[in-house]
Amino acid sequence: MPLEDKMKILEKLEEGVSNTDVGRLFGVNESTVRTIKKNEKAIRASMESVSPLCSKVLCIPRDVNIEKMETELTFWVEDQTIGGRPLTLKAICSQAKRIYKQLVETTGNGNPDKFHASKGWFEKFRNRYSLRNSRLMGEEEPLNAQSAPKYSKQLQRLIRARGYVPQQVFNAEEMSLFWKCMPSRTFREKDKNPESLEEAKDRISLIFCANAAGDKMIKPLLLYKDPNPSCLLEKDKNRLPVFWRSHPKVSLTAALFLDWFHNCFIHQARSYLIEKNLEFRVLLILDRGPNHPDSLFFAHPNVDIVFLPLEGTSYLQPLDQGIIEAFRRYYTKHMFDHFADCIEKNPCLTLKETWQQYNIADALVVIKEAMDDIKPAALNKAWWKLWDDVVNDYACFPRANEEVAKIVESAKRMDFKFLDIEEGEINELLKFQALAITERESVSINTEEDKSPEPEVKMNLRKLNAVLRQASDLIDAAIDMDPFLDRSLAFKKDFNKLLYTYKEVQKNLQNKAKELKKEKDTNEEEVVWMKKMDTESESEGESESESESKSESESHKEEQVERRKEDKKPPEEDPGPSSSGTETLTISEESAKAINAELDFWNLTLELNLERVDVPELKEENPEAVPSK
Prior knowledge:
54% of the residues lie in helices and 6% in strands. By secondary structure, the protein is mainly alpha-helical.
């Protein structure tokens, strides 16, 4: 009987229900009820030590490191499947143990010997992550050296039928990079700070793309977890050496690849082919993956898409023929040189402090330097398996041992601890870099990315002036220091050529500053003029109000004069009979002279705008006809 039912029986007994009624209610014998009542303390203690009554499923927490290991192992299995590499039960279990051991060493929690990667675990792992269709050994054989030429001949036949030249055929491949990874003997192994350990495994994703001629490398797509890191706030992301994009999981999705295809690849390929006086027609060769959707076939009318076979991608992919490995070696060398240069400039810095100050902006500089080290002849030679007719020199590819030796020399410059470093440790570091697999997510094209508006970045004229002043001081110091004047003058000439771009920018910014100042002064003059006009309009309003009051008083006076004129007219007499039939009005000569004098006086007063005028009294024969003032 479940503990929950026993607890219900005990509750009924506490309510005073008899043993018989409780047994009849729950369908058990009366003796069973008595036994449960007898063991009441043990039953309640058991209930306190288990999950709550409301929980339907009892969840046992798993080891966190095992969950992380299984997630990384899933990506590894998927990459192996897409790359056409055979998988066995032993290989998967060995990789699982290796990843679990690394996680335990990183976090410091758990025991690496606790996880055995048994067959039972593998079956549960396969069912848990729906890996039933993963190709294991015994299924279809991958493409090898005997079967690969068949596909290569088919591709070459397609290239000849479409009339493509090596400059028009491109290959793109994605990779991941631990951009702050250091050798195992450094502080990374001793530091127990989880943030530092996670920072050491900070990952970026890149897409490399180059043509078969080897003379054109498209600006790579770079995925970072932060869309606007603080070290790039003052940088224009459209003018970086990479096509900058962000993703929280640093995962290359179909939407991000299409964004790079339309906004970067198309523009640069068109400009390159126009410069070469070639028609804008491109053949782009890709591997078959969820981040390369079928809609690419219709993405652009001048671009043809060809997918490599799933079972032979790693064997035929041109950029997988040593180009990506060479880039990792170049990146590691330039990163070590950057650390050594920083310590030489500031001897007070330790290697750990220099590593902590190394940010993504510095990594972009190192990435650009590593890309510049990849020679066009090496890019051309990488097509020897897929299109051997286009290769010009088979002996141009850099030797890995020579590059590793250069990395060792750069590592010795960083710190005295690396004076006895060997090539084996560098090879181990490069192998660890190769484990930086690219996460692939099967998402729709309409995946929403972070489209928060980026702040507008402008050149600071004050900082630019300071830099150019320092450059001028450097030239003067070189001339004073060098005893050979011709050499110092040649240095000055070459240095000024390098500064020409920034001087042009300075001139443009100064012109803009003058225009802005002029506009500001004009606006200030307009503001002053508007204030002046406002004051004048106010004074004019007051004068207009006064003139209006004056005009009203003048009109009132004119009305009074007219009224007086009418009152001064003599009374009309009854008209007598006349031959002409017209009426006549007779006025005495004295009255006429008085009226004319009065009219002249009022005209004069109106012209002089007098406010008050005393009207003289008229001397008439009939004084009652003139009204008193």
